[in-house]
Design a protein that fits this description.
Spore Coat Polysaccharide Biosynthesis Protein SpsA, Chain A, 10 helices, alpha/beta, 48% helix, 2 domains, elongated
């Protein structure tokens, strides 16, 4: 007699930073959503070095939530590396990644699981149909970044989010990529697995303000561009060739005027050219420096994160 098939295990990975004010409400909504699916599940919370009382609240929740696992990082390593920490501990047949600020609605988790089971897709990706409350500069910045990344890398990420379900083979493949400059949604797109999309609207944060400052967004954008395309380096070479041709033409003209006895002082022209060329050189060095910084961070070989405490029901 054949044994009954095992129900799939679903892992939900949630990186958290300063979400202590609403982590209890988040878990309550998530538990309500998980009751709608006929699967076993585990919830993995990653405290990314939060200075608030979130870890205490997570430990309180773990006493009454047997499927809850959690780790606490020694400091704030950033969302992308906190995701790495959670994914490395996920044992599920499918892994769902979502934010902890409430903007990824837990009510969509059953929809993702059903879509995964019915479609046979490797990835079920939440795509933003509305970005929610954002300043004009944030919207323009996001649009510019995705346009540039699409043109440079060929990956269409407009509207994409970190809210996605990955099949076990996708998660295992993702974990084999050991770089320290992590851009989660770009790396997921790079793998090229069969993907289906479900639309969702970004709802307002439950409480507090986003920890994504303009500096952090700019840094992530640089990581995304430099880790998925070497075109900026080729752009430096192309700009150098353009200026070389321009310099040759200007040199021939200058020599001709000198021999013809019509040479001009051209002081303003010289100063302008020096400013243009100097600016180009500084920008070029900056682009090269960004790639060197990525290489430097990779070759140091330091751990991507450090765990100080963990909660595991199996222990």
């Amino acid at each position: 007699m054949n044994a009954a098939p095992r129900s799939p295990l679903i892992s939900i990975v949630i990186p958290l930073y300063n979400e202590g004010s609403h982590v209890t409400a988040l878990l309550s909504d998530l538990k309500a959503a998980l009751q709608q699916i006929e699967c076993s599940f585990e919830v993995i919370l990653v405290d990314d070095g939060s200075p608030d009382d979130m870890w205490r609240k997570i430990k309180d929740e773990a006493r009454t939530f047997p499927s809850l696992r959690a780790i606490r990082l020694s400091r704030n390593f950033g969302k992308e590396l906190a995701l790495c920490a959670g994914l490395e501990r996920a044992d599920g047949d499918a892994v769902i990644v979502m934010d902890g600020d409430g903007q990824h609605p837990p009510s969509l988790v059953p929809v993702m699981v059903e879509k995964w089971q019915s479609s046979g897709a490797d990835i079920v990706q939440g795509v933003k149909v509305r970005r929610g409350r954002e300043s004009l500069t944030s919207k323009l910045g996001a649009l510019s970044f995705y346009v540039i990344l699409n043109k440079l890398s060929g990956f269409e990420l407009k509207g994409a989010s970190d809210f996605k379900l990955m099949d076990r083979k996708v998660a295992d493949t993702w974990l084999k990529m050991r770089e320290r400059n992590v851009f989660f949604r770009g790396m997921t797109a790079w793998m090229g697995f069969n993907t289906v999309q479900i639309p969702f609207e970004v709802v307002p944060r439950r409480e507090g303000r986003s920890g994504w400052s303009y500096f952090k967004r700019w840094k992530l954008a640089l990581i995304g561009i430099t880790t998925f395309s070497s075109f900026p380096l080729h752009l430096v070479t192309f700009a150098g060739l353009i200026f070389l041709l321009f310099a040759l033409g200007l040199g021939i003209q200058t020599l001709y005027l000198k021999l013809a006895g019509r040479a001009l002082t051209g002081f303003a022209t010289v100063i302008l050219l020096e400013l243009i060329i100097g600016s180009l050189l500084m920008i070029s060095l900056g682009i090269i420096g960004e790639y060197l910084a990525r290489i430097y961070e990779e070759v140091k070989g330091r751990p991507r994160y450090i765990v100080t405490e963990s909660i595991d029901p199996e222990q």
